[in-house]
Each structure stands twice: as C-alpha cells, then as structure tokens.
Amino acid sequence: MTDSLLMPSIADAYRGGMRQLAAGVSLITSADLQQPGGMIASAVTSVSAEPPTLLVCVNRNASMFELIQRSGHFCVNVLSADALGLVDIFSNAARRAERFATGEWLQDDLGSPIAADALVAFSCKLVNTVDWHTHAIFLGEVTNVVHPNSDAQPMVYHDRAFHQLSAL
C-alpha cells in the first residue's frame, strides 16, 4: 500500500481541521421587495474598524447568494445559545415557510430582518463581492449595530455540534 492510500486528501484533511476551529454562529438575513431570506453561517469575520466592515462567505448555490446581490444589504445576527430553534428552521430548506413566522423580528434601516433575541445585529451595506470558486465573499460596511439580547450566552459551533460557553 502506498502512503497516498492511507493519507486523506487535502480537502478531507482541511474539512477535518476546520471542524476544530470553534466559531460563533450567525443568522445572515436580507430582504428584497419585502421577501426576506436567511441562512445560518459561521463564516463571518471582522475585516476592519475604519470603516467598520464584516465579511460573510456564501455558497453560490444558496438562495442567499442572489438575494444579497439583488438587495445590496444584509444583517449579521449573532445568535445566543438558546436560539437552536432558529438554527434548525434556517438550516432546513423544507422549513423555509416557517423562517420568519417563528420568533420576533425587527427590521433595520436597509430592510434586513433582525432577530429580536440576537446577541448583537450588524446591519451592512454591500460594498464589494469577491468570487472564490464555489463561494462569494460579501464585504459589508456596517451601517448600524443593535444589541437586542446582549446578556445571553453566545452559541458556538465546534466539531459538527452547537455549544454554549461556560464560565471559567
């Protein structure tokens, strides 16, 4: 047997390694012509404070890809540990009709939905899109920040499971 048969491909090794990178869980929302959409994401990163900018990675096959491009805005709702119900609804295409019928929703100045129980919500105006193979990297300049539920514990995704941080 050769070493290449025993070694995982670089893509498999990458996926296995990324499972070890704990990340906050966000609900990315947007709306176009009063039609809201949303998806769960852990690929959200701060880019800069001047100007305040976030990036969100979205698969081109996701419905949110076209919605963000059309609307020109999105909201990053950082989820609390008790928001597993929203994660289930927004991760399941078969439950799409339930998405904004569940929970309490606000709307930002750009038209994106804000989850009323999010730890923090960042309203973003789309300023640039970087195409990268199967995904788009959407860069959004933050136009507003609200803290609907800042006392809650954050939700964390690690090794294919959702977790709550515990006090040290």
UniProtKB/TrEMBL annotation:
User: Pfam families per the record?
Assistant: Flavin_Reduct (PF01613)
Indicate yes or no for the key word Oxidoreductase: yes
Q: Start and end of every Flavin reductase like domain?
A: 18-164
GO MF: FMN binding; riboflavin reductase (NADPH) activity
Keyword vocabulary terms for this entry: Oxidoreductase
Q: What is this protein called?
A: Flavin reductase
Q: Which organism is it from?
A: Pantoea rodasii
